[in-house]
Specification:
Mean pLDDT: 87
Distance between the termini: 12 Å
Structural class: mainly alpha
Helix content: 55-70%
Shape: globular
Largest sheet: 2 strands, antiparallel
Oligomer: single chain
Length: 270
């Protein structure tokens, strides 16, 4: 089987999968929840679209897959930056930032998985902690990786890509602030006056509805900003190929050594 065509695309398929799965997650859960009347149609919170069954089942499964692909993207990026060899990438500061960004991305992916598995209607506190890790962690990760992108310009990436990532990072910071600050204002006003006891049905009859809309709009744009940042690795991942190397065990199952240590053992590459 000729794998040359696949190798030319490198690991860019991870970015494609992330885009497809994340879009499928929000579109499917939104369509199901709105059609069943579980949420208002005008930009509910993303997690609200997966807060009630049966959409919560689909939302949880797809969001867990999104979290896995998010972590995979961060890990591939970490290995790519680790293998670059020039004055900028060889500095101790660059290596530390590369490792810190991977740790932050891992926390963000774990937070996304928590959001998927702990619905806000069941365990609100845990759900909110997961969402905070995912959103705030995603923005911090974007900031570090944007700085690293500028450090490897123009040898390894273009200035246009760096500027685009900087724009996404700055947008993410704004959306994080508007999401959470508006949510605080909206919740405070809703507690003082509301017609609907279920916040999933929050509309203009309830207190704090304008601030609620600002918060939900911001959350959708924040999620899109973080995902687009990760998907922007598409062209970078074309330059990366990961090979799995397998070697036979010299002492399988405690049996006597069947392989002469002086023999050259050819690794199996997948």
């Amino acid at each position: 089987m000729d794998l040359s065509c696949i190798k030319q695309q490198g690991m860019s398929f991870v970015s494609v999968c992330l885009a497809v799965v994340s879009l499928s997650t929000v579109i499917t859960s939104y369509a199901m929840s709105v059609s069943r009347g579980d949420v208002q149609s005008l930009f509910p919170y993303i997690s609200d679209t997966g807060g009630k069954p049966p959409e919560s089942c689909v939302f949880g499964q797809l969001l867990n897959t999104t979290a896995l692909l998010l972590f995979a993207s961060a890990w591939i990026r970490y290995k790519q930056m680790e293998d670059l060899d020039d004055d900028a990438t060889g500095s101790r500061k660059f290596r530390i930032c590369n490792l810190v960004s991977l740790i932050i991305a891992t926390v963000a992916a774990l937070g996304l998985s928590i959001v998927a598995n702990f619905q806000d209607v069941a365990v609100l506190t845990v759900h909110m902690i997961g969402a905070c890790c995912a959103f705030v962690g995603g923005v911090f990760y974007a900031g570090i990786q944007t700085w690293m992108s500028y450090k490897i310009c123009p040898n390894w990436t273009s200035y246009s890509v760096c500027r685009f990532r900087l724009f996404l990072t700055m947008s993410g910071i704004v959306f994080v602030l508007t999401t959470y600050l508006s949510e605080i204002v909206a919740s405070s006003k809703w507690k003082k006056h509301h017609v609907h006891n279920d916040t999933f049905q929050w509309n203009n009859e309830d207190g704090g509805y304008p601030a609620h809309l600002v918060s939900t709009f911001s959350e959708w744009f924040l999620a899109a900003t973080i995902l687009i940042f990760f998907i922007s690795y598409f062209s970078d991942f074309k330059k990366v190929v990961i090979e799995l190397e397998m070697r036979p065990n010299s002492d399988p199952l405690g049996m006597p050594n069947m392989i002469n240590e002086d023999d050259d053992v050819e690794p199996l590459r997948l």
